């Protein structure tokens, strides 16, 4: 049930990649990159998807934008006119008018801008492609966008190689804003940047959200950045959401052992807080051959026999806080508490 | 939010130049640093100028045979006359009967000097293909350079080697161009489909390429060339040879193009263009093609020497162009047997432009490729 | 405190190119002690990687160590200046990979894809010892077990692409330990890894350090990792060392404006949700356009006009082992006031 304020409502999204072996490419199995993912995002809200490599967060973000086609599930998007459209099944043609409402910011500032186009052309392309053929109008809008991201308009005719990583990310953000989308998917937008530049971009994204009311789906692996930008956080493991909660609840009172381990693994920038950390054994599970039952059980300190047999479902344990763990109600897990001044 | 507006560090003049430089300019600047490639580029241009102005640079008619001029060694230009003045001259032929064999032989005779003249009269031709004239760069004062000027000697049939070489340059270099254009069209088209479509189209095209490449080239050419009927005119044979050579040449280009398309498909900026609603065609022509244009140019400049070598080899073996057509390969055919080489070693000079041009193209192509993609 | 095992004084490493000279390291000094971890932290262009490459004399052309000394106290007690040794001489090669081990950031490109993990380990072992092939193989399996790789007897014959990122990094650490080094240099060892894997690797490095009284030089841009692992910290900016001292002092009583600003701009899991981060004005200058005087002055909120852009501040010892290179603490301040 998508509330009238929700901009995106994802239901039971699945993306499986077939594995072929042998001369005749027999189908021998599937990589369950995204396996039954559901969540919704409200207008002007930031939901972060966190997880480690192979958890499916990037695949999820690409499915939502239809850069790749999902195997099954619904992706209900609310357009500016208020209509709800399931974009999972639309053809390329049908998707075109919706393109302007959902955009993406990429991780790598170096490959996300065409090195052979000026930044005026890069930022202006979404406008051109969507019908703004008048160069004057385009240039005016591009200048406006540059201001929004705090880049001087003198840079209009330069090429991407003249800019630093942080500046390129701003150009990428300006491009994403060009069509005034209601949802922006940000795929690790600050991971490739220096710390001080990261801070600038994070602040910029927060400012733009306040000013323009954009919703963000923020895909990241860095929990510290996630703490700063999110309203709600979803933790993914091997293609599934294992916990989803408002930010403070997730960080201070996690209810899934994996979330607890993730939080304790993040190095805190304070030498006095060299807390006892939980070091997980083994490697992240293989999405093409996940362990039976709960896929986290081989690495879980709290696992019991049941965990090997039953696959837990995502259940709500308090308002807005859902967990996929058989022992969620029994366990008392440690989060990170906000520092006392 | 003033901390977000930038206190940018001072940007130097040089930096601004680099900042607004297009990719093309950056490539040109990188290319310029490669001295060898620049020199090679100049050499290649000079060769093509020779090809364009072939008839102007030649001085003797290339097809006229005359037994009296047979196997004359290269004759030097005598720059200073008996008095020490700068007065370029060559010696004209004079017949002499050998008293024992009673054979009449002709040889240049010092008592028959002729003045070397610039822009002299010679045989008639059409300058640039449409202006009838008979002015050539070099000539002699009496208007018959074919009897006096033998810069690189003559062959068995009395034809001037220098003039034939110049004309052969035209043929050999243009056959390369025609062949490469054909390969380019085929290569980009099929490589593009392969790289962009993927799937079964890619599989089929790749298997065809592999089959073509696995056939040994010389026997393949021999077979195809032998199939060309001998009744065809030199022009028809010319085109048939071009097509034969292009049939193999396109595979290399197709693979390069396919590789580039496949790599580009994964780039974020392509995804960004798709996400804002750009059409397939726009993505291909506005985003992808400019990215690998420079690679294509580099691949082409490396494919050209292959074409030239192919034609030279085929004609040398007698399977390609046939007399009266002239190309470097045809001229080298005359130099095939040991007797001829012993009598007239200057006939081998036709190999020199082949080597020079091939080397020049290779260095040029390497330079272009490094400039276009220093990391690739 | 015992004698340092490595002393670097006033190191200068420059890259001389057509477009100009990049002073990648412009006067860095620090000491490294056995059993302690020195963290070198800074953003891009600060010269931290070039510093350790200078120590090992593997700076790529056109870079060169132009001046300074790097005194290494070798296992037999002799002290050699690494800056003076020929970079591909026998002694330097014995030290590199022998007494000083190095772990890189990208395990995929640092390990050969054409050789098994065992082959690479055996090669490293035999380069620095006289063991036979068989003995070296046994030692290789021991090393793999030491770094916590499960089933080492089988894994020794695996290729690097068959292993996950975390396992590959463990192999890199095993390689670094092949010749029983006394100093381990880790250049961003966990940047490319997931956070849970990072925790495992940092735990491993700490354990090995304790077991062997190893000196560790850890390079990273992540202040959290520094806080976790380092005993002493050197903060670098544009090739200069701007502050150094014990880790607690650096985090809780930083003096240099850059260190302070950097610490404030780090995101933290302990922060309020949706809170803004403090930023440092401007951006890191281009290496060819280095500001005059103190390199940080254009971005510094406390810069003293007339002083900071004129001369580079020398490092002053503020307290025990705490040094700062900033005009706010030099006597110039009184002169300008």
SSE topology sketch:
The complex is a heterotrimer of chains A (341), B (376) and C (337).
Chain A: E1 6-21, E2 26-42, E3 46-50, H1 57-64, E4 72-78, E5 84-86, H2 92-95, E6 102-105, H3 119-129, H4 135-148, H5 165-177, E7 183-187, H6 195-212, E8 215-220, H7 223-229, E9 232-237, E10 240-246, H8 247-252, H9 257-265, H10 305-309, E11 315-318, E12 321-323
Parallel strand pairs in A: 3-8, 3-9, 6-7, 7-8
Antiparallel strand pairs in A: 1-2, 1-4, 4-5, 9-10, 10-12, 11-12
Helix pairs in contact in A: 3-4, 3-5, 4-5, 5-6
Chain B: H1 13-19, H2 23-32, H3 35-52, H4 54-57, E1 78-80, E2 86-97, E3 104-127, E4 131-140, H5 161-197, H6 199-214, H7 217-227, H8 234-265, H9 268-275, H10 280-316, H11 328-333, H12 338-343, H13 351-372
Antiparallel strand pairs in B: 1-2, 2-3, 3-4
Chain C: E1 6-17, E2 20-32, E3 37-41, H1 48-55, E4 63-73, E5 79-81, H2 90-95, E6 100-103, H3 107-110, H4 117-127, H5 133-146, H6 152-155, H7 165-176, E7 183-187, H8 195-212, E8 215-220, H9 223-229, E9 232-237, E10 240-246, H10 247-252, H11 257-264, E11 316-319, E12 322-324, H12 332-336
Parallel strand pairs in C: 3-8, 3-9, 6-7, 7-8
Antiparallel strand pairs in C: 1-2, 1-4, 4-5, 9-10, 10-12, 11-12
Helix pairs in contact in C: 4-5, 4-7, 5-7, 7-8
Question: What structural class is derived from the secondary structure elements of chain A?
Answer: alpha/beta
Q: Largest chain interface and its two residue counts?
A: A-C, 52 and 49 residues
Secondary structure tally, helices of chain B: 13
Distance between the termini of chain B: 42 Å
Helix/strand class of chain B: alpha+beta
**Taking strands numbered 1, 2, ... along the chain, how are they ordered across the largest sheet of chain B?**
1-2-3-4
Report the major sheet of chain B.
Answer: 4 strands, antiparallel
Largest sheet of chain A: 8 strands, mixed
Number of E strands of chain A: 12
CATH class of the largest domain in chain B: Mainly Alpha
Radius of gyration of chain A: 21 Å
- Under the CATH scheme, the architecture of the largest domain in chain B is Orthogonal Bundle
> Averaging pLDDT over every residue of chain A, what do you get?
87
Cα-based radius of gyration of chain B, to the nearest Å: 27 Å
User: What fraction, in percent, of the residue positions of chain A are helical?
Assistant: 25-40%
What is the H level of CATH, i.e. the homologous superfamily of the largest domain in chain B? MetI-like
